[in-house]
Every structure is written in C-alpha cells, then in structure tokens.
C-alpha cells in the first residue's frame, strides 16, 4: 500500500461502484459514492452467471461473503427439440464447466454490507464533471450544483453513462439486433427439477437459444422447493420493432428494457406462441407457465478507445460493452474496480498507475468485444441444429466458436 491518499468520487452505487468504493477505501483512500436512485437498489430476483474462479477470487479478497447463496453448475447441456418428441429434446454434448449461479440481489447485498452508510449518498445524480487546475483534480456537479473536488472520479454509472459521454463524446451505443425475454418461475410450480440440478441448459431454436438454470429464492433461500428457475431467450428483433417491444404495460417506452412485472401480457402471449413449437416439452412447461414473471431487454455494444481520461475512469457497463455471451456480465465491473485499486496501491505515481490500468482494461475490453461478436454469430445468427449434430461435431463447432487465433489474443488460444 502506498502513502498516497486520494479523494475519490464513485458515480453509481451498483455492483461496479460498490466494488470500487470498498476496494479503494481499504487502500486508505477517502471515498464518496453518489447514487442517483433515492434508496437501495433492487434486483427483483434476477439471476446471473459467473465463472467460479471470479467468485472465488472476490471471496478471497473478502469482497463477497464466503457463504454467498448460489449453486454450482458443472455441465453446460446443449440441446434442441427432437423429432421423436423426447421430454428433454436431444443433447449431443454437455460441456464440463465451473459456473456459479447467483441472484443479482444477493451479490449486491454482499458488497453493500462492506460499504459504510456514511460513504454513499442516495438521490444524488451527478450532472457534470470537469478537470480543474493542473488537471489533477475533477470538480463534480450534483443536481447542477458544485459538490466538491476530487483527485479521482470513477464512473460506474451503467450503460447510459454520463462519464463515458463526457470522456468520449463521440461514442455511441450500438444496438445488436438482439433482445432478450427473461422469465422467473418459482420452483414450487415444477413437479420435477432433477434435470436442472448442477446444470446450465442452452436450448437451441432456429433464431437463437434459451438458457435455463436454478438460482436461490427470496432471501437467498437454497432449499428445494424455495428456489427459482431463471430462464431467458434471445430474440432477433429489427431496430424498427424495438419501440413496440420496449413499451411497458403503462404505455411508457423504456430506453433499453422493461422490468419484471411490467411487460404487457399480450406481448408475452405473442412471444409464447412464436417460441412454444421450438421447445422440448420439459422446457416448454417452464417457459409457458402462467406463474412466470417476465422482463425484456435490448442488447447493445459499446466500443471505446480507452477507460481513462486524465483523472476520470470508467468501470463496468460505463466502459466497453460486449454482446451478452462472454460470461463477463457484472463481473467485468468488479474486475475493473479491483484492478484499479491494485494499480493505485503499487505506486505513489497516480497518473502512471492510471495509465497502466487503462492499457490493460482497454485490451481486455476489446478482446471481450471480439469474442462476444464471434459468439453472437455462432449462437444467434448462424446457430446450427444441435439435434442433428454428433458429439464430435458439436465439440468442434464450439471450439471454433469460442476460441480466437493468436492474431486476436496476442498469444495462444484462450477459451471463452
């Protein structure tokens, strides 16, 4: 740890923001978090997928509870509806994996408990930031009024980031042509959860795929009967149809999503009629159950030349955004934040630390983007018929889809 104590403002109090605040605070820096929402954030029970090593690394740093509620998936089952009408469809291959299946809310709560209440200000939207003096300070405005000067500002304010717009004004979100319908079904409405135990299911249909997996229930409940099936399906949606898709049951148009409980029933019914013929019976019973809660989300990408300008930095979805198939998700923000704290702890030269951190995060972000684009092609735009493939065919397909040659990675092949 260095003797260089910084005044740090973190803009955004979600996963990336809390991680940055806790990690930097532990290095001795004075941290204030500005969160625009008026109170604690709510995840509505949504499930997330994380690589096991990432969770273990964060637990090793005491950023996450050792007993964080979640399940371990040891196999990724690839399947599709089969002509013989088999209950689970046909699965030519189940890939061995080490994945943790979690709820967003439990992850957030674990981080938030490590941040003192005095360090976070709710209902405080940052409206401007600018370098002042010799460029080593940033002056923030909150609700249009000055809110102080800081040695470093970390923007962890999501995919519509103010900080990104200030740092890279030419950057624009790019719609991928893909949207997602998500569902949450309480386990008590299933008669059989055996196929879901220890597994993540990827179920192919002609325009993409579904995912199905178990997550803890309310309050982190993990006992059988109290869990939730988290499922989702990727949809090809032309940009011209996005306004209609993202209009909620009150007639309001969201920018990129419709939250759980606000998706119009007729829209869900249309999607169910379109999707039902493509699902094996077991998974159709889950997706078509009337006990589901639904949400919709459009998928965007963001390419940037960097993660830092002067004493301003980006973390999480404020930075680069890859298509949603790389498994990075919210953990991109956690690793951005932890790496930033480590870089600052290694030297008293703040600007040199930020420059090195920026190079590393930019290279990683670009690699994730390229990988996400390749996976989108393999899993959405040109997804093969799993039911017609042999195990050898599928292994070869996945190896080619999920690995990059040396020219992209700058080294040997790396798995997704």
Describe the structure.
There is one protein chain. This protein has 416 residues and is of the alpha/beta class. The protein folds into two domains: 7-38 and 123-173 and 304-373, 3-Layer(bba) Sandwich (FAD/NAD(P)-binding domain), CATH 3.50.50.60; 48-106 and 174-300, 2-Layer Sandwich (D-Amino Acid Oxidase, Chain A, domain 2), CATH 3.30.9.60. The chain contains eleven helices and 18 strands. The strands form three sheets. It has a nine-stranded mixed sheet, with helices on both faces. A six-stranded mixed sheet has the order 6-2-1-10-18-17. A three-stranded antiparallel sheet has the order 7-8-9. Strand 1, helix 1 (15-26) and strand 2 (30-35) form a beta-alpha-beta unit. It is globular. Residues 405-416 have low confidence and may be disordered.
Helix/strand layout:
Elements: E1 7-11, H1 15-26, E2 30-35, E3 47-51, H2 52-60, E4 71-80, E5 90-103, H3 104-112, E6 120-122, E7 126-132, E8 137-142, E9 145-150, E10 152-155, H4 162-167, E11 174-186, E12 199-205, E13 208-215, E14 228-236, H5 242-245, E15 257-258, H6 265-275, H7 281-287, E16 293-301, E17 308-309, E18 312-314, H8 329-345, H9 350-381, H10 391-402, H11 406-409
Parallel strand pairs: 1-2, 1-10, 2-6, 4-12, 10-18
Antiparallel strand pairs: 3-5, 4-5, 7-8, 8-9, 11-14, 11-16, 12-13, 13-14, 15-16, 17-18
Helix pairs in contact: 1-3, 1-8, 8-9
Short descriptors:
single chain; 416 residues; alpha/beta; FAD/NAD(P)-binding domain; D-Amino Acid Oxidase, Chain A, domain 2; 2 domains; 9-stranded mixed sheet; 6-stranded mixed sheet; 18 strands; globular; disordered C terminus
